[in-house]
Amino acid sequence: MLKVAVSGAGGRMGRRIIALAIEAKEFEVVAALEQKGYPQLGEDAGTVAQIGEIGVTITDEPGAGTKPEVLIDFSTPAGTEKWLKYAAANKVALVTGTTGLSGQQEELLQAAAKKTAVLRAANMSLGVNLLFKLAAEAAAILNEDYDIEVVETHHRFKQDAPSGTALELARRMAKVKGWDWPNCLVHGREGRGAQRQGKTIGMHAVRAGDTVGEHRVIFAALGETVELRHDMHSRDTLAQGALTAAKWLAEQKPGLYSMFDVLGLK
């Protein structure tokens, strides 16, 4: 079985990754990690994930003698920074879905990838990664008569906006268009004189209820509209994607990878 550690083990994603890893019987969860001061430190990770005790305590550091083959990280930028250093020093493969890294943290990620296999993805869903590919292809095909808008919706508890997935969609489209990134983004509109400008991508974030995740990419010209859409019904889709990525990454050499590599979408 593949030995995995899960960072962000007490969060929504971390709990589901642990639950599905145990259910799959292909993984051995050897560490469940959280930040110092986390209220459930010391509790059994299985109990926190509501699957019953699994004999793994939530801690802020891997136990002595514990070395996972892959660390799956869904924490915070500060947490990811810590685990990048750990992964590089211990030659542990790292799968991270954390978004919003600073420039310094991005440099650390690049440095870690020279020492171990690192997979970074804004979203680990097969459907969303297909949307990344299709949105970029549509942007390349449709000329500048077509306005581009991205609308994302997430649950009321999400802390960052816009979502990492929405930003990645926009980044890929701006790249194929040759538009100035990230200055081509327009975050919402208000007041008079807010009419659309050319070579821009509108970005809109909705926070409502318990919505897991919805992303729409709108291409609109005078006379027609083309829309690409992906709706996430369960976090299990992301958790399964992270576990699939972990299995794939465990076999790879040092380097920086994406879900396109895992899914053969390049």
Q: Helix/strand-derived class? A: alpha/beta
Order of the strands making up the biggest sheet: 3-2-1-4-5-6-12
- Low confidence ranges: none
Total DSSP E strands: 12
Question: How is the secondary structure organized here?
Answer:
Blueprint: E1 2-7, H1 12-24, E2 27-33, H2 45-48, E3 58-59, E4 70-73, H3 77-90, E5 93-96, H4 103-112, E6 117-120, H5 126-141, E7 147-154, H6 164-177, E8 185-187, E9 201-207, E10 213-221, E11 224-232, H7 236-249, E12 255-257, H8 259-263
Q: What is the gist of this entry?
A:
The protein has 8 helices and 12 strands.
Description of the molecule:
The chain has 266 residues and is an alpha/beta fold. Helix content is 34%, strand content 25%. The protein has eight helices and twelve strands. The chain has helices at residues 12-24, 45-48, 77-90, 103-112, 126-141, 164-177, 236-249, 259-263, and strands at residues 2-7, 27-33, 58-59, 70-73, 93-96, 117-120, 147-154, 185-187, 201-207, 213-221, 224-232, 255-257. The strands form two sheets. The chain has a seven-stranded parallel sheet with strand order 3-2-1-4-5-6-12, sandwiched between helices. Strands 8-9-7-10-11 form a five-stranded mixed sheet, covered by helices on one side. α3 (77-90) packs parallel to α4 (103-112). The protein is elongated and about 60 Å long. The chain starts with a strand and ends with a helix. 39% of the residues are buried. The model has no long low-confidence stretch (mean pLDDT 95).
List keywords for this structure.
seven-stranded parallel sheet, 34% helix, 266 residues, 12 strands, alpha/beta, 8 helices
